Amino acid sequence: MSGNAKTYRDLFQEIYEKYGIQTTTQFHVNPDKQISEEKYQEALKAYSILPAIFDDTFGRNEDA
Fold it and tell me: What's the superkingdom here (predicted)?
C-alpha cells in the first residue's frame, strides 16, 4: 500500500472524532495494520448509522 494508506488506528480515531464512538474492536486488531480505502469507507459508513440506531432504541437523552 502507498505511504498515505490508512490504518485501523486512523479509522478508530475518526470514528471517535465524528461519532463519539469508542469500540473494543480496537483491542482485537493491530492498530498499525493498513487497510484499503474501500474497507475504510465501508467501516465509516457502518459506524455512521450506529448513533441513530441507539437513539431509536434507547431514546435520546435530552439532559445530556
Answer: Bacteria
